[in-house]
Amino acid sequence: MLGLVSLAVTLGCAPCDVGVGGGGVRCSALTSGSGDPDSHGAGGVGVGVLPPPVDPTDPPEPAPDDVQVLITHDPLTGVDDPLAGSSVQSCALWQDTRCEGGRAQRCAAYDVDTGAFVAPTGAWERALWYERWLEMFHQPDGQVMERQFNRETAPGLPEYTWGDPQRFQQYTGKGDAAIWTGVALLSGALRYATTGTEADRELLRARTEAVLTLFEVTGFPGYLARYHYLLVDGTMTTPDHVIRNGTPDFLDNEIVTAPPGLPAGYGAFVDLDGVPRTGTPMWYGNPSIDQYSGVLSSLPAAVALLDDPAVTARAAEQIACTLNRLERLDIVNLDQNEAARDALAAVLQGPLGLDLEAGDLDPLEQDRLVLYVMRQYNPSSSAPFEEGCPAAPAVRPSAVIDAASKEFVVDLFSLVADLDPSQARPTSIDHFYAPNVRGADAVHLLHLAAAAMHLTGDPIYDRFASDVLIEEFGAAPVAQTLGALTPPQWCRQFYGEHIAALPLWDLLALLEDGPLRDEMAQAMVEELWTRQALGTANAKLAMMMVGEVPAEVVPDRAGAVAIALEALAGLGGNGGVPLDPRRSYTRPFAQVEAELPAGNLAICPTEEERAACEQPLEIYGISLGATLISSTCRGLDSECVMADGTCTTAIAASALPVELRSYADDLWQRSPFQVGDTFDVDGGVQSPGLDLIELYWLARYYGWTDEGAGTVLAWQDEGACAR
Predict the structure, then answer these.
(1) Mean pLDDT score, 302-331
(2) Per-residue pLDDT averaged across 17-46, rounded?
(3) Residue 707 CB coordination number (10 Å)
(4) Across 557-634, where does the E strand assignment appear?
(5) How many CA atoms lie within 13 A of 557 on its CB side?
(6) Could you give the C-alpha distances from 140 to 128, 133, 239, 256, 266, in angstroms and in order?
(7) How far is Cα 350 from Cα 486, in angstroms, rounded to an integer?
(8) Mean pLDDT of 436-453
């Protein structure tokens, strides 16, 4: 563990699946985030350091010729309610029913131009069903999670069968609830911006409340919970809430003051046996970069569309306090420590080398590594933990580690201890950004500053962006190295570009035309899309790019749109029934291999590619772990026998069509090359379906599909009813 975290610290790298359920240990210097949905993220700062010379939040005096760089506008442009002034009432939940004024009504698709109810088809119909299932079966207290059943779930079962509470076992993927609740909020914002109906506005309000609640349950402005839940005695469950039993660990905390987003009486519930129960409201901490990316990238658009001063003020506080809460640590004089410099070079370059393009900033030329760290709340850190909102972003380091000092190794290992998620130290850290060497982190902090500037109007965030991120760190050219290190697909983590795409898309949507937006558009096209996501056929990133980047900047815009629309047409139930949710169905390797499109085939790694994944690195005599892709052979169809007699698993040479991809919580951050999969319980876990929902509303908002255009959901009369 120490060697692994030393690697992350030396690099300024994101955690590499080091928590519960983690497997990989090689991470990219130029991407961010935690790997496993329930893993504990890491990042850190040591204690053997030099004192800061000044208050770290005291901003430098602005130069006389300072020019504002963060000129922003609302990310999304909404439309007027097409039903305003008419007798037709909007609704939000497809196929919902009610008895109103003695008349039976059903929520159906209404064509505004013709005044007629219509039958949806294709991706439009699937998106409506997926929105329904998301709302009804995947949002306990507004938090988005996977649904796990207590038995097999065959394809084609009707909703009333698989949705029966007696088939419910638990919610899973809890540790990733924040990011997916944020993605659901962005989907809701795109939906309301497209339809303009009052019902969709209220849906957006509810999802906004759910995201704000994930901040407010902690009681610390800017500090995010991964999820909140009820702690109970005994083994019982309910689909109405997230339930846990057993002994909490140091990352579990009781909710001291219930925020407005929690339901009245939160804590009391009825279990599946009909027995009244009481649970203790709790929240789970250790938020990672990916959790923050989901909520921070959706709040600016949501609150702007709602145009509610109270909601805007709450969101502005959380976004600004997130940035202000980050503490700056500098590791200096790297050029005077050959071992530290060599370690940084080895990690940044990897066995395959750092693929810099002409004109790219070389991170190996830096003599200083700057980290912006998020302190962890735990029992040991509770006394020194910042309870309020710091006044401003940290522009100067609160601590400095000197690589030229004789105490450097001691300081480094103190930093390592702070990174270990199994320890609850006063100085423990949840995650960190390294904006002067890592492209994704430069984007994250530029976006955070722009969002804070937009929602608060405080010019201190523009000064932080211009004087610190852009002038001191060179954040714009650093962002142009987003794709400089992409590991072989055998050991690549595919969440990296996804959690970089979220803030980059929102940053582009926030910024007015100008030099900074031009540079970020170039990073989106050349680094995220061309060098990373194009080869994975990432439809979500394609649609975000063509939606916000000018046409003349995208080399093959039509090709990117085609990738997105092809995925939209193919997404649906993965058990052979398109109008089904996506579930964890076993799909044998041989079966999927036989269905690969012409020109695609299963391939084995070369020895060089294997070495690029598995070759360990060393720092200060410690052998650092590697991502093992080989193991003892088991005689499986998918195995590739390597030269030493061990086996690796074959993958597809090209990204699979979405119809053939393995089950995932969200397709756009998982491997598109995996061929087949096996599960102990067939159909035992069900996806929230946001990969389809969000893609559909992106395509609708930006006008790339006319499926459902001109229609909204409204109540359709079905005759008399009795109350």
Answers:
(1) 97
(2) 29
(3) 19
(4) 602-603, 617-619, 622-624
(5) 12
(6) 20, 12, 7, 20, 12
(7) 10
(8) 95
3-state secondary structure of 86: coil
Q: For the CA atoms of 668, 671, 672, 678, what is the dihedral angle to 10 degrees?
A: -120
CA distances from 305 to 186, 198, 435, 700 (A): 11, 12, 31, 17
b/e code 388-401 from CB counts within 10 Å (16+ = b): ebbebbbbbbbbbb
Instruction: Dig out the tokens for 30 from the structure.
Output: 């130029």
From CA 344, how far away is CA 6, in angstroms rounded?
Answer: 11
Both structure tokens of 88: 């037709």
Q: Which amino acid is at 236?
A: M
Amino acid, single-letter form, for residue 645: G
The span from the CA of 299 to the CA of 593, in Å, is 42
Residue 675 has a pLDDT of: 97
Residue 356: how many other CB atoms lie within 10 Å: 16
Token pair listed for 697? 């509303």
Q: Is the pLDDT of residue 658 over 50?
A: yes
* Contact residues for 350 (Cβ-Cβ < 8 A; gap 6+): 26, 485, 487, 612
CB atoms within 10 A of CB 575: 21
The reported pTM is 0.91
pLDDT above 80 for 230: yes
pLDDT tens profile 543-575 = 999 999 999 999 999 999 999 999 999 999 999
Q: Which two tokens stand for residue 592?
A: 């999927």
